[in-house]
Design a protein that fits this description.
single chain; mainly beta; 22-stranded antiparallel beta barrel; about 15% helix; globular
Amino acid sequence: MIDNDTTCSRKLTRAHIQLGTLSIALVLSATTAGRAEPVLDRALNSARVVAKSKTCEIIKIAFNFRVRYVSHFPLGSGTDLRIMVRAIDPGVAASEILTRRESLRVPPTKIARLRAIELDIDPAGGPALNVQFAGAAHFDVAEGQDFESIIIAVSDGRGGRTCRPTLDDVASAAWAPTIRKETAATEPPQDSGPQFPPRTKTRTSGAATDADKKAAAAALDEARAALKKQRLNEAMKLLAKILALPETEQTAEAQELMGLARQRSGDLAEAQAEYEDYLQHYPQGEGAERVRQRLAGVTTAKGGGSGQIAGESTHEKFRPRRQDDGTSMWTFSGSASQFYIRDDSFHTLHDPSLPPDLSNDPDEHRVHQNELLSSLDLVGTWQNADAKWKFRFSGSEEHSFATDEDEFVSVAALFAEANIRDWNTLIRAGRQTRNTGGVLGRFDGALVGWQASDWLGVNVVAGSPVRRRSDEPFMDDKYFAGLSFDIGRLYEGLDINVFAIEQLDRDIVDREAVGFEARYLTPSLAAFASVDYDLHFGDFNSAVVSGTWTLLDKSTLHAGAEYRKFPYLSAWNALQGQPFITLYDLLKTYSIDDVDQLAIDRTASYQSANLGLAHPINEHLQVTADVTIADTSGTVASGGVDATPTTGTEFYYSAQLIANDMAADGDMFIAGLRVADREDSNLYVVDLNTRIPITPDLRVGPRVRFGYRDGDTSDLEEYSVLPSLLVNYFVTRNINFEVEAGAYWTNTRINGVEETETELFITAGYRYDFQADGRIR
């Protein structure tokens, strides 16, 4: 399917796409790749339950590129959850996403009752995660700490409370990227002292004022930060201020954290009193279950002389407890799918300046795709008290019925991983994806990560970059090696990664970079910044800052600015436009200095800034809007390759209105408007999209998109219409069928020439998910 952004002036539009002047949503919506939604490990990496209790489950959805959380809807509960995201590295994301939709295998859940997870490249509002539940769910959403994931917290809603999308205070049995070293239970707190604020024994009556609520919220954020840094005295003073106020939304959590702070300080009697007071006021809900567990731990500790709950780590509360019963746990899961894809176009050209050509068919028919896409994704894990092991394979085969090429096999992931507890070490080898430490996406090689302390991690990586998933390992003779350091706990919510990396094409320096990444995450603010500087070429590869701020009314304000080379500076850029396959062939004609200069000449600079707002009107309506300003420099002529012009300053505007539960429970209606103001033309798109549940197992998604383009530098005028229908049917929890059919009609007039094109497409297929687990003594 060719989207509204691909018009009759295809060469110009494709040039814009290649230069990266469009937002990631526009780039991805213009792809002509298949529309199936198998599990491919392209855009989406995995979904897993990383923490759980009896009333709460926290789910982590990981991407293969860095993303920024923008907003979600509905805000608190529903059967369908839509999460808007933006790619922090649009170029990397564009190379990973080859389909308009992609799915993830759903992990087994008890509370969340997940039904489906799907990434939809929505051109009106940007990429969106669609999460479907089997029934009404209570949820909250936040940015992942690594800025490559989205965290969803789902609770049973008992007591009117929901759990938070954070990895605090919930026991975990999930895989972790590194194993953090535990602090011994007998180690004294860093700032513990003999003087602690007295326990608040009575509650202040009356209603809390707005000033009280703001003061409580601010004090609770500071108290959480102090607790994480083990500044117990400071934390207890802040919590005491909250408990001295009339009842607010923060009172219950402040009571719980006060008990935890006293417990860590060694004052078990006061901790027990705080927990008992909590249960007296809040006997139901997810927090009550957690406090009961802590109270039981305190009671046991008072008898055994320990001030810490058994199995709880002071610095990493989510670390799975060591299994010392001599057993090992294993899991095996996978997805298998097959989708038939057909895409035909019919083309008519009317040019009055040319004589009729009776030999040509006026309705030229072309088959763009006629293939069967088969994919397989497998994950196996094994863990005991000493280590965890993981195996991952994800690959696909495209069998074409329209060409002589019988099959096209690609491997997205094939690696083995070991996480050794006593060594605090992670080892992964094979085809994998990494977007930090200077690594730019998928590669064949090995990664070793060592957690030297609770604030310092050391990572060593080596391998060969993967340009295409069908490539054999190390086929381009390009190799890299890098060293990076993860530095955390310097300031509440702030993590820093510094790196150095070098990439060679045999003996030729292809890339030599240093840089850093900074990630700052609090309940209300998620911010990311990175710098990549190439020492060999003496220029910046990228400088990015991006963030999302959640306001008190649950509105979100997101903004970002970036400067980057497109593509990234590399000696291989010199091969663009040259009749050579390798750099060594190019060196037969040019010197090494000439090759470096050709690489610089072929590399453009891309600059952009964006600002957006998502505002909930009520529990059933949300409006979003954003604006993006972009500019891409041209490239100079050299080495027999023509120059490319600058795009000039371009503006992109979009707005969206989302509604749910309008005609039936679980439905969702999306109306979007997008405007692109470019140097050569203006584009206007109206997108109407719906998801309607017919039965609990059957959903339909009718959609229609209207587009209009007019030229600024020519008499270009274009109209387009794209109607489509998506039908998804769950035969069982593990088997679902999907059919999508649609048409794309466009009529273009330019310089007296009229061109009409009609495109018909259909995708039909199934996916089967399977899982098994067990325990071996």
